[in-house]
Amino acid sequence: MMRAVWLALLLSIGVCAQAGSEVPATIRMASDVWVDRINPDGTGLSWDVLRKVFEPAGVELQMQIVPYTRSIGLVKRGEADAWVASYQNEVSGGVVYPTWHYDSDLISALSLTSKPEPDQAELRRSRLVWMRGYEYQRYIPGLSHYNELQRRSGILSMLDQGHADYYIDARPEVEQVLAGAEEPGKYRVTDLLRLPLYIGFSDTPRGRALAKLYDQRMAQLVEQGELRQVFERWGEHYPFE
After folding, report:
1. 60 near 23, Cβ under 8 Å?
2. Within a 10 A sphere around the Cβ of 176, how many other Cβ atoms?
3. Has residue 156 got a pLDDT over 60?
4. In this predicted structure, what is the pLDDT of residue 133?
5. CATH number of residue 51's parent domain
6. Model-level pTM?
């Protein structure tokens, strides 16, 4: 009888160990810098959300700060498990998108005040710029006149000299660009739309296991209301109403 009990116990331990081994003990995350969401020192709203998702489940976050397009490349090559701040189905092939978003971006346009306020028709006929890899043409229908930039440092000059009509980006990044203006009153910021933000996971056994865990944990945290305080602490829109 005792032998049967011990055998059952050992089998149970083996099954638990096998189940636990399906989820890695670490998640290698790559991300660009996003104002007060992904700060280089490991602070920010996004890091706080992701720690609440993974760390109570025994998964340690390992963070790597790289340019956005490089973060995608690392994931597609399996050199990172996930990247931060993707729009839904933005990238195809070699990546897995979870069901749950973790945040949202308020997308805005920066222009000279002499330009018309940018409705959809105005955007279609205007010259637009945004950062490389952001793919806003996927989410704002009809855009065809746009260029992708490697850096934000020359955006105000492009607007001033008439090389572009509108710069499109998430609102914090637009405000960061505007903060460098000598005459900020020359410019206008117009909010366009809000887009959910996702984690893009590598299409590998590690990535798929982490994506499954992420969805399970996000469902629990949202149902229990545990993320609301994080967004309130950072003064940001709560994206799960």
Report:
1. no
2. 14
3. yes
4. 85
5. 3.40.190.10
6. 0.81
